[in-house]
Amino acid sequence: MLTGLLHLWRKLWLTIKNYNLFPSIPPTQDQHQLRNQRLSTRLFIVLLILSLIVLILYTSLITITQTLKFTSPSITQYRQLYSTYSQTLSCDCKQISINYHTFLHLNYTLHQVCDSIFVTQDWFDYLTLARPQTILYADDFLVSGTYLFQGMRAFCDLSRQTIENRLTEFYATQYVSADVVPDELFQLQAESLISQFISSTINNFLLSLSSIRQTTQSNILFSARQTNYELGVYQNVVVYSIPYSYSGCSCASSAKCAYQCRMYNGFHPTVLFYVPGMYIGCYPVESLLQSDLRCWYNQSCISQVQSYFNASAPMNVTALKAAVSEEFVTNSTMEEILGKLMIEEWFPTLMYENYYNACSPSECSYVVEVRNSVVYIVTTVIGVIGGLVTILRLIVPRAVALNLNVFPSIPPTQDQHQLRNQRLSTRLFIVLLIISLIVLILYTSLITITQTLKFTSPSITQYRQLYSTYSQTLSCDCKQISINYHTFLHLNYTLHQVCDSIFVTQDWFDYLTLARPQTILYADDFLVSGTYLFQGMRAFCDLSRQTIENRLTEFYATQYVSADVVPDELFQLQAESLISQFISSTINNFLLSLSSIRQTTQSNILFSARQTNYELGVYQNVVVYSIPYSYSGCSCASSAKCAYQCRMYNGFHPTVLFYVPGMYIGCYPVESLLQSDLRCWYNQSCISQVQSYFNASAPMNVTALKAAVSEEFVTNSTMEEILGKLMIEEWFPTLMYENYYNACSPSECSYVVEVRNSVVYIVTTVIGVIGGLVTILKQAIPLFVELSVFCSRKWRMNYGRNSVLPVV
């Protein structure tokens, strides 16, 4: 057996030793030629194997970044992919904008009082009809209770209506996302949206309410129950009004004056009972806001209150349930309750699956690092091996034998003519091959091609460098396509200096009220009207500031949408446009709201308690009548804007001692204030002149406003002009492009350039072409040479030197 194995080994060794890939035809016996052919074969095999090993090792060992795709994933599949590839997973939404209503519902419960008997018509009728039918004090709870509970129902209705209206708008708002937003991030964003919605809804509601409250006080609107002003009769002819006071607080200086509700002994000043937690003051709304519901949580307190009503008309009333709400306690004031829009609890429902289905991603892609597949390696080797074999077969035998005859005949010829043709073909083959390769190399190296280059996760500096060079073709996709304005834009401002001056403080109002002569004065005397004009000024300052802050909250929460990074200059222009639109819309909405209040006040012919729009008189000691007041021939019956310059009289005599520069009085303090300017309050001498008519025993140091502080307003700018710019002296926008860029967070930028082919491309192209080129040349050149020689021989035979040309 060992002998057989040795014999087999010898036979195999001889086969390998004598293996010849380059045999001559016919086979030669020349040992030198045979040696060269076998050496060429071994060198060819070694070089081929080494080349293939290098190629296989390279293609199999390198790692490549591969983007894998998953078509139409379900939400379960998406979550599985996200748990593994959260850093690189991207799923494009078919629908990038989705109504909030699709995935978010927001339910709520109002304070229990809004569903109680205390805000029903039955309760109001009971309080009205069951009280003693005698003359009662205006501040007696038997009288005021009806209006307080009506105000409570109004708050409930307004809160409910406000929420429903805002929810309709909220649900119709678009949630924008180009890619599927992961569950956790979606939850956080939804919570932020809900928080912003609740905050803006409450702020806007309170702003509207504040506008009404402050203009009501500024216009000194008269409460028919004489809770803010009392009417009196002078000499049985003239009806006058004096401000009501609550515990030393005058309704002339504050609408919030109030004290605890009480029940009197008929029309006698003896107080029988103080209603716990309930207040009465200048206006029912103002006093209600200071009240709480502690009595209405207590059945004993309710019974005590009812005991003062007519026992013949009983009404079963059940107390509110204590500890029902975690948001409010029994002694929470109505202002605190209204400060949360009377909402005990919000119940948000977030449906991520609905969002995912609406987004409906058609494909998810994620990046993995992998080695090349066997299929790729095999196809690469197959693609290269043909050209490699051709080159080696061409070069190796000739390098070994230095034989310059590429086209030997079979069998080898000794014919010098054939040998000459073969050598000529070889030379032509080499020349054409070299020329072809030179042309190919020059062409592939010199031509320019359009190439899309990519830059991964560029910093803002790198982006700017790219943009400065490739602005026409640069595109950088944002990971986050919707970004809150607050991320990159801050908008500061300064109000008109009067809003930070002494002229809008309670000290100044008290000074104007308390330091004036305590005698009967004309209603249009600045000693009287000044208080209300400056209260109106403070109201404008407060409303302007509150309006801006509310609108800024909404503005900052607005989404800036950009699928690609927006260049710096364009971003600047867009931001300026956004700011301009914000300022314009804020001012317009504010002025519209104020105009609505002003016009409804005039349309309702609401009576100003200081009788600046209508005067009251007494006819035959029985009938009280009203006649419209006129200012310089302009009647308040036809226009609320009638006004003339403020003046100071000599007591109750018609002699005018001083006209206050720039200040006007008219039908309503708000209307006359809008026509006034601040020139006097920029002038220390004018201020001193005004103060000289007040009580010298109560001096007050007052510093004039600073002239030329503002570029926006001048000293004689009217309040209407100042308010027409929301009392803003200057806006200070701060734009942070870098913050926007970081929030956008582009993962990749692409840009198009014209470049020359790389060395790798040129080499691979030449290798890919050379096999076919050699084959074509080897087939075509011998035929061409033979044809050329044949044609040349024929020509010489027919038209040689000794040939006779035919005679024509």
Structure explained in plain terms:
The chain has 808 residues and is α+β, with helices and mostly antiparallel strands. It starts with a helix and ends in a 9-residue tail after the last helix. The longest helix is centred in the last third of the chain and has 41 residues, at 759-799. 48% of the residues lie in helices and 20% in strands. A hairpin with a 3-residue loop joins strand 6 and strand 7 (238-243). It is built from 23 helices and 26 strands. It has a domain at 485-730. Residues 803-808 have low confidence and may be disordered.
Compile the SSE list and pairings:
Blueprint: H1 2-17, H2 31-61, E1 63-71, H3 75-85, E2 90-92, E3 97-99, H4 100-103, E4 104-110, H5 121-129, H6 141-172, E5 174-176, H7 183-218, E6 229-234, E7 238-243, E8 245-246, E9 249-250, E10 258-265, E11 268-281, H8 284-290, H9 299-306, H10 334-338, E12 343-350, H11 352-359, E13 363-371, H12 374-401, H13 416-446, E14 448-456, H14 460-470, E15 475-477, E16 482-484, H15 485-488, E17 489-495, H16 506-514, H17 526-557, E18 559-561, H18 568-603, E19 614-619, E20 623-628, E21 630-631, E22 634-635, E23 643-650, E24 653-666, H19 669-675, H20 684-691, H21 719-723, E25 728-735, H22 737-744, E26 748-756, H23 759-799
Antiparallel strand pairs: 1-13, 2-13, 3-5, 4-12, 6-7, 8-9, 10-11, 14-26, 15-26, 16-18, 17-25, 19-20, 21-22, 23-24
Tag the structure with descriptive keywords.
membrane; single chain; transmembrane helix; three-stranded antiparallel β-sheet; alpha+beta; 23 helices; 808 residues; transmembrane
